[in-house]
Amino acid sequence: MNRIEGRVKVTGLATYAAEYPVENVTYAFPVQSQIAKGRVRHVDAQAALAMPGVLTVLSGEDPPPLASGAGELALFQSREVAYRGQIVAAVVADTYENARAAAAVVRVDYDPDDHDVSLRADHPGLYKPDHVNPAYPTDTEKGDIEAGLARAAAVVDVTYETPVLHNNPMEPHAALASWDDEGRLLVYDTAQGTTLSRNTLAKVFGLPKERVRVVSRHVGGGFGSKGTTRPQAVLAAMAARAVGRPVKLVLTRQQMYDVTGYRTPTIQRLRIGADAEGRLTALEHVAYEQTSTLEEFAEQTATPTRIMYAAPALRTAHRLVRLDVATPSWMRAPGECPGMYALESALDELAYALGMDPVELRIVNEPETEPDRGLPFSSRNLVGCLREGAHRFGWEQRDPAPGVRREGEWLIGTGVAASTYPARRSPSKARAVVQDDGDVLVQVAAADIGTGARTALTRIAAEALGLAPERVHVELGDSDLPEAPVAGGSMGTASWGSAVVRACEELKSDGREGTADTTEEVQGDAAFSRHAFGAQFAEVRVSSVTGEVRVSRLLGVFAAGRIVDAKLARSQFIGGMTMGMGMGLMEETLTDEEFGGFLRRDLAQYHVPACADVLDVEAVWLDERDSELNPMASKGIGEIGIVGTAAAIGNAVYHATGHRVRELPITPGKILMF
Amino acid sequence: MEITLQVNGRPRTVDVDPRMSLLDLLRERLGLIGAKKGCDHGQCGACTVLIDGRRALSCLALGVAVDGSEVTTVEGLADGDELHPLQAAFIEHDAFQCGYCTPGQLCSAAGMLGEPGPSAVTEDLLVDPGLTPEEIRERMSGNLCRCGAYVNIVTAISEVAR
Predict the structure, then answer these.
(1) Domain architecture of chain A: domains with CATH
(2) Is the pTM of this model over 0.80?
(3) Ranges for the Aldehyde oxidase/xanthine dehydrogenase a/b hammerhead domain (chain A) (predicted)?
C-alpha cells in the first residue's frame, strides 16, 4: 500500500518538529564544552548579552531549576564536565543568526582534569554491569568451554572490533517549546515516542503528566537516536520558560554527534570449537564496550549468541568501562547488530578452518530449542532463509577458494551471514471511534519515523473492522492520544497494532467506540523464545588497485511472521541492509584521544551510503505462520535488515581477496595493507 | 537588506539579515518548510531547490546573493492539485520513508532531468548516455537518504526519465 502521508511528504507540507508556525518565536543555540573532563569555573556572558537581539544566556552560573538532577538531561545543574561537547551554556535571541553569533562569544573558563576516552580490552576500569539492555543477564554460562575447545577438530579464537557509529537521521534533533498562561508545556519534538518524551519532560520539570504535551507528527528518521528524550527538548523548554516566549532549537549536524547518542565501540573476542562434522563443541562470546560517567548504557552485544546455535558449552559476557565520553545510546539493532557482525564473521572463519560450506555449517548447528534458556521457539526459520537465499543467490555454484576470481583489477567474492532480532511487544493503549460520516478514527500515541506506522496501523485497523483502508483514519504522534510505547526495539507495530486490534474489536461489539489497554494481555504472553531470523548474501568486487569495495549484489531473506504490508516491509528491509552496508564499508566516528570528543562530526567525513554506492539490494521473505506473537501474527522488521549485513560483506571480501579484515569499517586502506 | 525574488512564481520582497542563508530565508521568513536543513553545510542535499532552473543547495546560498533570482522549491513542483510526475512516481515506488530528504531528492531529480552532458561514470563522452540507472545513481549522489530508499528512488526516477 502507498504511504498514507505520501502526498504531504512529496509536496513539502509535512511538518517536522521545527516547522510549526508559532508566533513570536525565539531561537536558542547551545555552547559546548571544550574540555573532556573537569569543572566549569566561570561562564562570562557579558559580551554575548550585549549582542543584538540576545534575550538571555543560560548556564550553570544561575542554574534554571529542574526537578530531576542527574544524567544527560540535567542541563546546567552541575559544574562538572563529563565529556567534550556537553552543553554548558545556551544563548536565546530573536533570530537564529543572532543566537548563533552570540553563542560564539560566550566565554567559558574551565579547570580541566586529565581525561580517559579510550576503550581497551585490558582497561583497568572494566566492570561487570548488573544487567545489559534492556534487562538481560550480563553473563551466561553452561557447559565447559575449555573442554569443548580441547576436543574440537577446529578452533577459531578471534577478536573483532567495531567503531563508534552515529545514527545520523536526516532530520536533526529539534524542539519547539512553549508554555501557556496556565503553565502547561507544549513541545514539538523529534521523538520516536511522544508518551515517553512527555513522561520524561514531566519528570525533569517536576510537572504532572497532564500538564505536558509532546507532538511529533512527522519524524525525519531516528534509528534509535530519538528514542530517549534528548537535551534539545529540555533546553528548548527551559529557555522558553526563561524568556517567556516560544523557543526553537535545532541542533547542528555537528552537535548531533555530541549529544544525541551513538553506538558504543565494541571489542569482541570469540572462541569457537567444532568437531569434524561442524557441530559446535564450544561457543564463547565476550564483549567489551564503553559507557559514560553520567549514565550507564550497557549494550547487549553478546545476547544474540545465546539464541543462534546449538552448543554444549556456551558462554557470553559483557564488560563495560566508564570513560569521559558522551553516553552511548540506541542505534538500530543495539546488541544484535555489532554482536552478529562478530559472531557471523567468526563462524565464516570456522567454516574455512573446517573446510565446510558456511551455509551448511549454520544448518548443522540449528538448535531444537533456545540454547540459552531451553525455551521453545515460537517459530524459527533460519534454515529456510539460508536455503531460499542460497538458491536465489546461486550459492550452489560457489567455489569456496578465496582470492581466485578476477576480472581485470577487480577481485570478486561472495559471503553469507545470518541475522536475527527479538520479536517483542509492550503494553499499549488505543481508541477507535465511529465518526459522523461513518468512517473510523483510530487514535494511538504511536510514532511514524519513516517506518510506515501510519499506513501499517491503517491496514491493521481496516482488517480488524472489515472496512476499506480509505475509511480508517489513524491519528498518531501526539502524547494527548492513548499512551503507547516508542517506535523502537522493532516492537512498534506489534505493540500498537495489538491495542488497535483490541480497540477495533470492542468498537465492533459496541457499535460506536472501543478502547483498549493491552497491559494484561501482554503480561499473559506464554513463555516462548520469540525472534525473527534472516540470511544475508553479499557479492563484492574489490579493486586490487585502489582497495575500493563495491557491493554488486545484496540479498536478504527474512522470516518475520506475517508481513503486514509488502511494499513497506521491503523498504524497511532494504533500508536496514543499506545502513548495514555503510557499517561494513564506510561508517566510523573517530574519538579524539588528545582533546576528547569525536572527530569526523559531519556528513563529509562520516560517510553514509550514497546513491552511487547502492547497486542491487533486494529483500524477500518466507511465508511464516506464528500464532504466539500478537493478533497480527507479525514480527518487527525495523532492525533485522541491518543485522548480519556487515558480516556478509566482510565474509565476501575475504572470499574475494583471501584477507580477513577484523576491524570495521573495511576501508580501502585496510585492503591495500595486505 | 531588502531583496526581491520570485519564489514558486510569486514575487517576494523580504528584509533579510545578510548572514541568512536562502534555506533559512525560505523556512524561517517565508514559511516554506519544504526545503529541509539536514546539515547546513552542503553535504546532504536535503535543502536542494532550483535557482533559475538549476538545482542548487540553498544552505550554501546567502539570501542576499539570490536577489532577483527565480527559486522553485518542492512546494512549487506540482501544478495545482496535479503532482509532478516525479512526485507521483516517488509515492508509487515508495521512494522515501521518513520523508526528510524527499523534497531535496525531488528538486534534485527535477533539475537533473534537464541537465545535458556526461557524468563521471559516462564511458563515451561523445555519446549521450541517457539516464541509465548507473547515470541516475551517479547524478543523484549529492542527495543522501539515511532510510536507504535509494533502490526505490532510482526506480522512480527511471520511470519518469523514460
Answers:
(1) 6-114+173-250 (3.90.1170.50), 131-165+263-423+528-672 (3.30.365.10), 429-523 (3.30.365.10)
(2) yes
(3) 11-114
